[in-house]
Here is the input.
Amino acid sequence: MAKEILIANSDKADQEEFQRIFETTDYRLIFSESGEEALLRVKLFKPDLIIAAAGLSEKNGLELCEDIRSDVESKHIPFILLSNIFGEISERDCKRVQADGIISKPLH
Here is the structure.
C-alpha cells in the first residue's frame, strides 16, 4: 500500500513541483487548498506525512500544526512547514507548534 502525503498549499506551481518531485516514488499525494480542508482530509485519509504552507487561507500552516498536534488521532503524524525564501516561519515558531521541520521554497 502506497504511503500518503497531504500537501496543504494553494499555490498551483508548488503543487505541480511536488508532483514532479514525487512522480517516481510510491507516495500518493493528496492536495488541500486551505487549512480547514486540510483538517478534514487528515481525518478522512490519515496521511503518513503532512506538508503545509505558512500562508494558507482560513487556517495558516502554524495553526494547522497546532490543531494536528492537539488531536490524539493525528498528533503522531510528521508535520513539515513550507516557508518561502524570506523565512516567514522562524525556528521558534516551529518549536512552539511542535512541527518536525521546515522546507524552504523554491522547492527545486
The mean pLDDT is 89. The chain has four helices and five strands. Residues 12-22 form the longest helix (11 residues).
